[in-house]
Amino acid sequence: MEAIRYERELYEPVRDFLIRQGFTVRGEVRSCDVAAMLDDRLIIVELKRHLSFDLLAQAVERQAYCDQVYLAVPKPADFREDKEWRAKLRVLKRLGLGLLLVSKNKGNFLIEEALTPDTPSGLRRAPGKRTSIAKELGNRRTDGNVGGTRGVPLLTAYREAALKMAVLIDIYGPMKPKELREKGAHEKKTTPILNANFYRWFERTEDGRYTITENGKEALITYERTAAVFREDEEKPEEEDAAKFDDTKINGDVDTARKGESPSI
Asked: Does the pLDDT at position 131 exceed 80?
């Protein structure tokens, strides 16, 4: 069994574990390492290298605004189901917390659900916080954050909308707000984002079009994984048009072929 040295290494196996159960999963949502939603069911997972009192306190606080809370930690290399281990499970069970053990062998990760969460009744609830997390999770188009990462600017729904616009301008050149919306930028947020220009990614030209600044170009590199998703969106229509053209050609109708997408900062 290989050592897991960083919290961020836990994210992808935990994410995939939840996705296989049908959840939509996002990393680093409103200070939660992992947030997952299935219908109206909200689960939060906190990633840590080992169990601690601070982790338990954090997890109990999370119970006020979600349905279930898991702790995910690396499985100890000398793991034994001894008296000490059973005592830890009793504490977690009494608190209603779930436990995921993550192990790594030859680059492959394995998730074991050591304990299923069962949030105790009678907790003081924080519906506003729950709504905020669910809204942020739902507004994110991509999974641009890695849970457990520290010191990296987070990709919020607001920043993601701005990044979409930066990608469009990078591909098509300077554009007006209306043109950006027609290409798929956010219907309501496009103009406010450009006017606020919080990240200094955009610059307005004399004819009312917007270009991307050096800061914007750096953002395309910083958030390369998410930018790549938006670039693929722009390539799909061309591929679909090409496929339609080929189909028409096969059918002998070449003459009829015509080829011609807050703020939480």
From this structure: yes
